Each structure stands twice: as structure tokens, then as C-alpha cells.
């Protein structure tokens, strides 16, 4: 080998070392100015409350202001596009929901790629969803519901909070995995759908525990199971649908993502701080009131989860011919 070869190798190694040192130096000095967490929903909802809780705790831990900026609309596409095009410097994050990965499967025009355009930071929480029925329906378990639906094919309606939403996709996944038939009745929101579920104008619904819990506790609605693969700490006593329908798993989620190319040391800083925040007793208690189960996974695990989630809902949307213009 020639001396020039060794020189090139030494320069390359020095360059890599300098780049690594620069990245770590940037992380050590981070943050030097306010950080923005973009929330894709209007103020006041569970996601907004969670975003402000994280912002408050991160501000204290990082000794820098963390600002929540609401950018609702277009099924969270507006906020997702905004963050995808933001500078990847660690000062802009998206508190993403499941719709980050669902949107490209159901909307005809989406300008971002949920994998290529974002850097996963941490899955903050799963949003507890339940399968529930009008109490007049003569079923008390998922198995009994499946038997009833098979005995009355196509005669039972389920409510969703809109075409292409997780509540519709969960119902369609339930239909395909259990071999039953139900007709969708889409609504513009959970409150309208729950009103008709209570009145008996629809019989079945998948919904967030945060909005359905009061109706279940009052006896106006009967909850049969949670949608997650494992039991939920927030709703003790409710079994997963998977106990009656092997393979069924739906975990609506909330998590932090950054623009693609955000330095790994900065991503790691945010992940580790959020993971520690999720262990605080007051935060855990607040999660229960919001109908959330804390997760706090690392960036690599969150990335794998997003990829799997996209694959699941893409298949459901394709087989159910679910499209939104």
C-alpha cells in the first residue's frame, strides 16, 4: 500500500472523528434557543394537553423554553407536512398520532413519506381504544358479539368518527379478522357517534376510552374489550379483543418525531428526557385521566413500530377500499 493511501485513510478517519465530535458538541450545547412541539389538533383535546404537559416538563429539564404550536386540519396532514419540511436542527418536533402513517394509505394526495421524511424519537403513549356496544344488544363478550353478528350478517351498524379514521380502520380490521359483517355509519366526531350509540341508532363502536369512559361508567354503553394486544393499565378488567380474535391488535398512538436528518445525539437527548418524564407519578396519573398508557420506547423501537403500523393499516385500507379525496 502506498503512503498516499495511508494519508487518505488518516484524513478520512480524522474527518469522521471531527464530524462525531462536532455532533456531540452540538448535543452538549443543546438547546440554545426555544424548541417547538407541533400538535396536529386544536387546543383542548387529549393530544394538546399531552403536548403541553411534555413541553412544561422538558422546559424544566432542558432549561429552555418549549413551545406548543397547534396546526390542526386535513387529518393531521398540515402539521405533518410542516414538520417534514422544517430544518432538522432539533428545534422542531411533531407530536404525531397514528394518522401520520395512516394518511398515505387513505388520502389520495399526501406530500410526505411517513418513514423517509421523519426521524422517530419516542412513542410517548398508546391511546386506549375500546370496542363497545349499545346495552340493548344481547352480548357481553367479544365472542358473543361475533356469534351475534354472524347470525345477523349485515344487519348491525357500527359508528365511526369519520371515513379513514382509526375508528373505521379498527372496525374493518375486526370484520376481516373475525369474519363478520357490519355496516359503517360515519360521523363528524365522537360526541355525535356516542349520542347515536346510546340512543340505539347504531349498535357497535370503536372509540377512545377518554371520550367513552363516562358513558361506560354510567351504564349507557357497554365496553367489551380493549383494542391493544395486551390488557391496558388504564382500563383494568377489560380483556383485549385478541383473546377472542387471535392476531387482532390495534394501538392508536402518540409519539414524537423530528424532521429526517435531525442529529442522533439530539434525538437521544429528547428521548431520554421524555422517558424519564413518563416515570413521574404525577404524569402517570394524568395519563390515566387522558385515557393513555405510557410507552417511552427508544427511537429504534419506535421506528420499527411505525413501519409495522403502516403496513397493517395499508392492508386494511386497500382491502376495504377506504379512500378519502
TrEMBL record:
Pfam families in alphabetical order: TctC
Q: Which UniProt keywords apply?
A: Signal
For whether the record's keyword set contains Cell division, the answer is no
Question: Which range is the signal sequence, renumbered to this chain?
Answer: 1-25
- InterPro entries xrefs: BUG
CDD domains documented for this protein: PBP2_Bug27
Record keyword Signal present: yes
Family as reported in the entry's similarity comment: Belongs to the UPF0065 (bug) family.
Read off the PANTHER family from this record: BLR1237 PROTEIN, TRICARBOXYLATE-BINDING PROTEIN
Q: What is this protein called?
A: Tripartite tricarboxylate transporter substrate binding protein
Organism, scientific name = Candidimonas humi
Lineage from the top down?
Answer: Bacteria, Pseudomonadati, Pseudomonadota, Betaproteobacteria, Burkholderiales
